[in-house]
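Allow me, if you will, to draw on your knowledge of protein folds for a short while. A protein sequence and the structure tokens that stand for its backbone fold form the material at issue. I would ask you to consider whether the tokens describe a fold that such a sequence might reasonably adopt. Thank you for your consideration; the sequence and its tokens are set out here:
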Amino acid sequence: MDNSIVIEILIVLLLISGNGLLAMSELAILSARKSWLQQRVNKGNKRAKQALTLAETPNDFLSTVQIGITLVGILAGVFGGATMAKDLARLLVALGLPAQHSDLAGAAITVSLITYLSLVIGELVPKNLALSNAERIAMAVAPTMHRLSRLAYPFVRLLSLSTALITRLLGVQPSTEPPVTEAEIEMMMSQGAEVGVFEPEEPEMVRRIFRLGNQRVGSLMTPRREIVWLDKSDEPEKVRQTVMKAGFSRFPVAASDLDNVIGMVHVADMLKHWLRDEAFDPYQLVHPPLFVPESIPALDLLERFKTSHTHMALVIDEYGGLAGLVTSNDLLEAIVGDIDRPVNPPIVQRTDGSWLLDGLLPVVDLLELVGWEELPPLGKGHYHTVGGLMMAALEEVPTEGASFVCQGFRFEVVDMDGLRVDKVLLTAVNAL
């Protein structure tokens, strides 16, 4: 074989390998986990710092890679089309191929060979390597890519300015979407659970944490009418009976009425005296209460629990009255689900496909059940529960049998507890 053809083939292979290096570097740096690189940066790793810098300025880096790939492609075309094809045609004539077919055959073989090598060596193999170990490859190629970026900076700036000008003329606006969304994280968690990276319960917990971030304290609290509390005027024996019957670890203490809360008392403090059979005044053990408005986000409440070193808060409405009570256990159950299985589940699916809902069911649970992104505009006022939704939609205190239809679902009051909506029947309209 002619030495010139061998040299040309080696040059083409070298150029294609350079294309592969650029393709591998591009994919490795863009797909490397920034959190992993940041950990190495914090430990003083210079290569990780260079890789992270390139990943955080993708426009300049991609322009550098594109310039390199374009130049490699042009040079490979020059050597392959203008030089190697002619030399290969002469070689084919020497091997006995008719001269009138040698040019076409040489060009076809050259194009096929360069295309095959470009796909395998220049794209597929490097990109598979990059995906298999993105972070370590990103660190390995970062110094070279960093130097190339500095050398190509004038051309990169020219390309960036030209691109920005053309996109502005076309009316294209920069994306305002965050780089990662809650939906993407939930999907990754689900996929990770399927392949065994995460425990089966973890994706559900993450989903609940995201939902907790959108909830207000009012949707988590125990409403005022269900609070078990101690009256300051109660005799010690009555206090003891109330505590034993309720089974809670903390109780609010008030003077005659829940709008006059004095503080909170811990059962553990009283238990010490009961075990020793000592006479004591329970109200000398009262701690100052933590008051929070019902409109604050649930995660803000978590921070207040941490800073105040308490586990219970009294929820105040906009008029200054007591709306309810919320504990750290309520926040925990919002993440992991009901710890103590309720006697009457808040959502029960019936055999006909309809659902029986508790009136105290938070509206965020209703949204998830029916697949709505947000609540439709129904009536006036703010509400946190299905019962509140019924009152807002009907614009009156409902009676049994009252109903309305909204976005393909029929809501019907089936039971009242005094003036409170106790049970609601939810039925898909197309199922009627």
